[in-house]
């Protein structure tokens, strides 16, 4: 899995802790879905896909309920962070969203909020977005790190472990 290999390299650069409890999410295999922990933090990881007709990158995250129907992830059982890795030719980056922002934005289900089973992400290198996409990009950018040229180890540590 390309995104997992990349994630392992990054974690080795920023932490002495090792990745543990790795679990492949079979239902999200197409997006290289995995769950793991590092120290006391738990993570869910995905590889985003570029779509031909819309700006940004698409990623799914859902699970099966008791009736085998797809449903959004629940805030109570969700890991602490969602890592979305973006590869676009020579460009690379990651979104590292804390659970709290995913709850705030209605992505994880909680209470009367249904949640979402997919998300479009917009790295800071994408411009000329429509107003809705631009608004989404604005709330996402604080959780994004461009890893194309060099790694800002301090920011990576903050995003992964703060």
Structure description:
The chain has one domain (2-161): MepB-like (Trna Endonuclease, Chain: A, domain 1, 3-Layer(aba) Sandwich), CATH 3.40.1350. Helices cover 23% and strands 33% of the residues. The chain has a 6-stranded mixed β-sheet. The protein has a 3-stranded antiparallel β-sheet with strand order 4-5-10. The chain is of the alpha+beta class. It has helices at residues 2-14, 99-104, 131-140, 153-161; strands at residues 19-24, 34-38, 41-47, 49-50, 57-60, 62-64, 70-72, 81-88, 91-98, 118-121, 144-146. The protein contains 4 helices and 11 strands, in the order H-E-E-E-E-E-E-E-E-E-H-E-H-E-H. The model has no long low-confidence stretch (mean pLDDT 91). The relative contact order is 0.18.
Question: What can be said about this structure in brief?
Answer:
With 162 residues, this protein is of the alpha+beta class.
Helix content: 10-25%
Radius of gyration: 15 Å
Task: Give the end-to-end Cα distance, rounded to a whole number of Å.
Answer: 26 Å
Strand content: 25-35%
> Which CATH class applies here?
Alpha Beta
Strand neighbour order, sheet with most strands: 1-2-3-8-9-11
The count of strands amounts to 11
Pfam families: MepB-like (PF08877)
Organism: Enterococcus silesiacus
Protein name: MepB protein
InterPro entries: MepB-like, MepB-like_sf
Keywords, separated by commas or semicolons:
162 residues; alpha+beta; 6-stranded mixed sheet; 3-stranded antiparallel sheet; 11 strands; 33% strand; globular; MepB protein; MepB-like; MepB-like_sf
């Amino acid at each position: 899995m390309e995104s997992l290999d990349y994630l392992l390299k990054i974690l080795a650069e920023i932490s002495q802790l090792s990745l543990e409890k790795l679990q492949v999410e079979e239902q999200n295999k197409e997006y290289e879905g995995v769950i793991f922990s590092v120290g006391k933090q738990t993570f869910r990881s995905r590889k985003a896909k570029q779509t031909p007709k819309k700006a940004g990158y698409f990623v799914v995250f859902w699970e099966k309920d008791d009736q085998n129907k797809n449903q959004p992830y629940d805030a109570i059982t969700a890991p602490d962070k969602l890592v979305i890795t973006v590869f676009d030719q020579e460009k690379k980056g990651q979104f590292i969203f804390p659970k709290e922002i995913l709850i705030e934005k209605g992505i994880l289900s909680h209470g009367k909020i249904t949640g979402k089973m997919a998300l479009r992400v917009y790295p800071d290198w994408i411009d000329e977005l429509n107003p809705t996409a631009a608004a989404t990009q604005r709330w996402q950018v604080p959780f994004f790190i461009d890893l194309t040229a060099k790694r800002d180890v301090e920011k990576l540590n903050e995003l992964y472990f703060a």
